[in-house]
# Entry
Amino acid sequence: MAWGWLLLAAVFEVVWAVGLKWTDGFSRAVPTTFVVTAMIASMLFLGLAARTLPLSVAYPIWTGVGVLGVSLCGMLLFQEPASAGRVLCILLICAGAAGLKILES
# Structure
């Protein structure tokens, strides 16, 4: 179940990070409420995952999945650059997170 909590935490991390773009510096009430709620949910689920998983595994994976999700959303939703170097760096971050999952025992 801990891996499920971690996945939910990462999904909510992507939601709040991408949602920041629409808060206009936290000056728009509805997007800000949505972002803050997603932040709280992300932390809650990360905390639940960290009850069982080592923090040295849970946190980097949470961050890595967030990097991947936010980067993809930035490229797709906000036309941010998708250069080969940038994509390679994102893949390296994901490889590190996957390595932690594989080596976790």
About this structure: The longest helix spans residues 29-52. The mean pLDDT is 93.
